[in-house]
Amino acid sequence: MQIDIGISETDRREIAEGLSRLLADTYTLYLKTHSFHWNVTGPMFNTLHLMFETQYNELALAVDLIAERIRALGFPAPGSYAQYAALTSIQEATDVPKADEMIRQLVAGQEAVVRTARSVFPAAEKVGDEPTADLLTQRMQLHEKTAWMLRSMLEG
């Protein structure tokens, strides 16, 4: 059936492509955060183990919201490691860094997700795609706060 939500197919495709990059970044950050949760050691173990768990659980929920928005716009959501690797701006962690380096990498990942979400916003705003704009705003707010909290652990 034809989609008639007041946004052209071309505009919906542009937004869905941006959301696909956001999905890839979010999923890659989820994997990195989950790995760090499993592998963190040192004096901050308990704090970081629990903090990373909270973060990867939130990211797991977020990937579903983003993918469902892509589907609502009428396009398939990427769902393979190969697709995510091609679309993400976040570098995978292939080793187990020290706890403070884990925090630095997660700050960088959180900020990367914010930049990706922000890059999609103009396309959504241009065509009055309020549901996507709302999703992007919520994602940016959450990732900025998480980056601040992680960054704060490295200060002082």
From TrEMBL:
It holds the Pfam family Ferritin. Residues 17-155 form the Ferritin/DPS domain. GO terms for molecular function: ferric iron binding; oxidoreductase activity, acting on metal ions. SUPFAM superfamilies: Ferritin-like (SSF47240). It comes from the Bacteria. CDD domains: DPS. Belongs to the Dps family. This is Ferritin. It comes from Skermanella stibiiresistens SB22. The lineage of its organism: Bacteria, Pseudomonadati, Pseudomonadota, Alphaproteobacteria, Rhodospirillales.
